[in-house]
Structures are given as C-alpha cells and as structure tokens.
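Consider the tokenized backbone below.
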C-alpha cells in the first residue's frame, strides 16, 4: 500500500478547500497519500475514500448522473469505501430530501445514508452563519460550524449515529463508514473533521 488515495468530487462546491484541508490533515497525522479532484467515473475505482463537497445539491446530482459517476460512487460506498458528505454532499448521500420551501424534491440521490434531509433548513443564502458546535462522540468537543444555506436531518434511521445537533436540529451523523455534516468544515482552520475522516479511510487499509 503506497499511501491513501482520497478523492474530492469536483463537480462544484468547495473542491480546492477540501483538497487543501485533507492534505493538511494527512500531513498532521503523518499519513502518506494523495488527494485528487474526481472529474470522471474512471477515477472512482482507485479511491480509498471520497469527499462530496458542498454546493448546490441538485446540480451535483444532475452532473454526476450525466457522467455516470453516481452509480460508480454508490457501488464503491456500498462495498465499504468511506465517504464524507458536506452540506449538499450530505443531501446527495441521503435516502430522502425535501425542501423547506418547495417540498419534496425530485433529485437523484445516492440513497445510502438512512436519513431524511430538509434542504435549506436554516434559511437561504443570506441566512449563512457560524456557530460553535460540539461533536463529543467523535472526540471533537468544540468546533466552529460554518452554515451556508445548510440542510438539517429531520429523521435518522436506528443505525445512524447522531454526532451533533444545533438548535435541536441534527447537523452531523455517521452510519458505518459514511460521515455527513450540514456545515462546512473546510471553511475553517480546524482540521479535526478532516483528520477524523482520514483516520476512517486509513482504518480500512
């Protein structure tokens, strides 16, 4: 094994920030490996772990569908590859998503994470905010959560571990090797979550 191969799905969203944070996390942990932008389905088969960054989730869903990545990603996660979904990435991993304003959304979802998501749960773009949150369950007592048109988790299946809540809304979950957050850890200087994910990927190898 010549180090980890972690990909960041590069359809749109905070791709560069996530690549940077993951590289720094690996460096701090002393774990060898590469972090790449994933732009086509062929790259997916070699991955040890994948980050699906934030952005407009319907766009991510549609674009991924167009280039056939969605099916590949789904198969790979189903076979045990760790994945970290951030904001829109969390929505994409979920089984069900509805919009607070629009209602049920007919968007392609990976249907892997047993949660029901409410998109834009904290309001629209102008309702972006930061707040300190806690993720004791994964050893991160304090973290600065950056919420940008953030979704929340309305319902979580019994096999889903709730990692964090904010204002009674679920904002971070883990189900097996799937990690999902409503907020954007790549927009802070805190690498705790990226380190946690890198360790999760490293365990598998």
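A designed sequence for it:
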């Amino acid at each position: 094994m010549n180090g980890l191969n972690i990909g960041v799905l590069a359809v749109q969203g905070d791709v560069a920030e996530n690549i940077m944070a993951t590289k720094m996390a690996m460096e701090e942990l002393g774990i060898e490996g590469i972090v790449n932008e994933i732009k086509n389905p062929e790259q997916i088969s070699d991955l040890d772990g994948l980050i699906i960054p934030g952005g407009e989730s319907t766009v991510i869903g549609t674009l991924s569908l167009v280039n056939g990545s969605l099916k590949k990603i789904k198969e790979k996660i189903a076979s045990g590859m760790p994945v970290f979904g951030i904001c829109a990435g969390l929505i994409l991993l979920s089984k069900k998503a509805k919009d607070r304003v629009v209602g049920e959304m007919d968007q392609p979802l990976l249907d892997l994470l047993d949660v029901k998501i409410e998109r834009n749960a904290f309001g629209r773009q102008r309702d972006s905010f930061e707040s300190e949150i806690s993720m004791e369950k994964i050893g991160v007592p304090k973290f600065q959560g950056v919420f940008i048109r953030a979704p929340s988790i309305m319902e979580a299946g019994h096999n889903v571990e709730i990692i964090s809540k904010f204002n009674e809304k679920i904002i971070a979950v883990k189900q097996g090797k799937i990690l999902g957050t409503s907020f954007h850890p790549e927009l802070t200087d805190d690498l705790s979550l990226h380190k946690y994910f890198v360790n999760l990927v490293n365990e598998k190898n």
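The first strand starts at residue 4 and ends at 9.
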